[in-house]
Every structure is written in structure tokens, then in C-alpha cells.
Amino acid sequence: MGHTRMKDLEHRIGGIEKEDVTGNVNYEPDNHHHMVKTRAKKVESIL
User: Fold this and answer.
1) Are 30 and 37 in contact (CB under 8 A)?
2) Whether the predicted pLDDT of 1 surpasses 70
3) pTM score
4) Which residues contact residue 25 at a Cβ distance below 8 angstroms, ignoring those fewer than 6 apart?
5) Tens digits of per-residue pLDDT, 10-36?
């Protein structure tokens, strides 16, 4: 299935919002606010 040297890592991608550092799924309002601001900064930096 995956690479053996990466057996303890989990690929996480998708539309569900994650915690900034851990990547765990998180539905808390404070995390959502932080992630919205983080995404806005990324978009601003490329415009």
C-alpha cells in the first residue's frame, strides 16, 4: 500500500478543516478563525 519507511505517517488532504500544527480534524470555532486568516495571508502573498 504505502512506502514502508513512511508507515507511521498518514496522508491527509481534503475539504475537512484540520488543526494547524497536528493536521487532526477540528471543528472548533477558534481553529476555524485561525485557518481562515492563515489562508487569507497565503492568498495575499501570491497576488
Assistant:
1) no
2) no
3) 0.59
4) 16, 17, 18, 19
5) 666 667 888 988 989 998 999 999 999
Name the β-bridge partners of 18. Answer: 25
Q: Is 25 strand, coil or helix?
A: strand
Return the domain boundaries, the chain.
Answer: 15-46
Q: Report the pLDDT value the prediction gives residue 14, as an integer from 0 to 100.
A: 66
Q: In 17-46, which positions are buried (b, 16+ CB within 10 angstroms) versus exposed (e)?
A: eeeeeeeeebeeeebeeeeeeeeeeeeeee
Say how far apart CA 41 and CA 46 lie, in whole Å.
9
Q: Are 47 and 38 in contact (CB under 8 A)?
A: no
